[in-house]
Amino acid sequence: MASYSGSTGERPKGLFALTEQQQWRMEEVREIARNELVPLAHAGDPGAVNRPLLRAMGQRGLLQGLFPKSSSGQQSREAQAMELCILRESLASVNTEAETALALQGLGAYPILQSGSQEIVDEWIPKVADGTAVAAFALSETGAGSDAAALELRADPDGNGWRLYGEKIWISNAPEADIYTVFARTTPGAGARGVTAFAVPAARQGVGGEHIDLVAPHPIGTVTFDAVRVEKGEVLGEVDRGFRVAMRTLDLFRPSVGAFAVGMGQAALDAAVSYTATREAFGGYLADQQAVSHALANMATQLEASRLLVYAAASAYDSGASPHEITKRSAMAKLYATETAQFVIDTAIQLHGARGLVQGHLLEHLYREVRATRIYEGASEIQRTIIGRSLFRPSQDKK
Ligand SMILES: Cc1cc2nc3c(=O)[nH]c(=O)nc-3n(C[C@H](O)[C@H](O)[C@H](O)COP(=O)(O)OP(=O)(O)OC[C@H]3O[C@@H](n4cnc5c(N)ncnc54)[C@H](O)[C@@H]3O)c2cc1C
Which of 89, 141, 167, 377 is catalytic? Predict the structure, then answer.
């Protein structure tokens, strides 16, 4: 049986692929993850925010990749989707804790970066980028998950500002975050058109919350708001237009959830190739069985298709494609890559037999870890709805 080359996604020259510089960046990130981040991730408390890990990612410049600066050193207000995907895919192929810690800094802080006042940006982005402040994105509520526009957390007018009342749930990094991007109802009964985004420091009086345990340990919980005062200057974007802020963040972020899935899928495929190439059975190796090599072929092909969809969606975002094109491609990338990763990891376990199920085995970990990606930031059904809707837009929108 031919030996396995041990690819973790490096691509030979000449293929439609990342540039050499981007490939080099991926290898650099994997190297940092293997040597410096894995020990810190293992030393952390599973399910809690790992501040030493975040600070290390700040010191090594990884978090700064989420918040690029212009050549003059000014903070850019635009994130780069491809850089985000490169960071997420390469970290995920080595360590999911580091990957998730990095991703959540971006998810929580992008609404501030893209829609906050200069003062709010100056106050929070440098601290999030060096890993000394933890950010969170608070949209979901008990009665408003997939139907996020139904959210009811109240922002009642109070002099020059507002007071927030209510609860958010399933908020990553809650209740430990330092800064929350909170989507609240400023106009009752107005659906998506009556929501405002606010930057709310966790230290503000009246902010609380509790941790929730999930199948794969994740820093996640509720955030409660008991008459929490917010100022005009803390509005992100415009009053009653906060839903757009949320959707803009999700358009940027969904391809990167796909990249996370691709990184995990690649790790599972690598493990399956390696195991089946060396596992002796029936007078040869498992990989000699055609059924096994066909399973691996399907995994590799769908993973490659996922990767290309992710890169295409990120590139559409970075090159300023039309909003409809970006939304459609983001949804396709997230849908296909997360569904594929679930299939690839499940098949890798099948090919490993019992050992893939042992607690602490890489595949057992990935099997639990991948599940949520098909639910958060819009479940797969919601992505299909977005894609389906895009097919019926008037033809001028498609150009
Ligand atoms: C690990 C994790 C991290 C998360 N982090 C965050 C976070 O940081 N911030 C945040 O705001 N939220 C976060 N969430 C919440 C997440 O975004 C919601 O769970 C998600 O939007 C789905 O909402 P729900 O759980 O209320 O499911 P529901 O809305 O109750 O939907 C349940 C299921 O019904 C189906 N369904 C729903 N609508 C439709 C439809 N129109 N057509 C067909 N089927 C449909 C889908 O299968 C869906 O999974 C996180 C969730 C998880 C699991």
Answer: 377
Residues with CB under 6 A from ligand 1: 137-140, 145-146, 170-172, 214, 218, 220, 372, 375-377, 379, 381-382, 385
Each residue's pLDDT tens digit, 27-40: 999 999 999 999 99
**Domains recognised in the chain with CATH numbers:** 20-134 (1.10.540.10), 136-240 (2.40.110.10), 244-398 (1.20.140.10)
Of residues 393 and 155, which shows the higher confidence score?
155
Q: Whose CA is closest to atom 12 on ligand 1?
A: 140
Query: Which residues lie across from 162 on neighbouring strands?
Result: 157, 230
Instruction: Tell me the mean pLDDT in the region 160-182.
Output: 98
Q: d(Cα 239, Cα 88) in Å, to the nearest integer?
A: 32
The pick from 140, 152, 200, 383 for probing ligand 1's pocket by mutation, whose C-beta has the most ligand atoms within 8 angstroms, reads: 140
Atom of ligand 1 nearest to the CA of 168: 11
What is the tens place of the pLDDT at every residue in 232-282? 999 999 999 999 999 999 999 999 999 999 999 999 999 999 999 999 999
| Residue 82 contacts residue 314 (beta carbons within 8 Å) | yes
What is the rounded CA–CA span in Å between residue 31 and residue 20? 16
Burial (0-12, 13-18, 19+ Cβ within 10 Å), 361: middle
Report the separation in Å between the CA atom of 338 and the middle of ligand 1, taken as the mean of its atom positions: 14
Query: How distant, in Å, are the alpha carbons of 21, 75, 80, 109, 334 from that of 114?
Result: 27, 11, 12, 9, 22
| CA nearest neighbour of 181 among 113, 247, 109 | 109
Ligand 1 geometric centre to CA of 143 (Å): 11
pTM of the model: 0.95
Q: What's the CA gap between 158 and 352, in Å, rounded?
A: 60
* Amino acid identity for residue 370 in this structure: V
280 is catalytic: no
Q: Whose CA is nearest to atom 53 of ligand 1?
A: 372
Q: What angle do CA 62, 65, 71 make, to 5 degrees?
A: 130
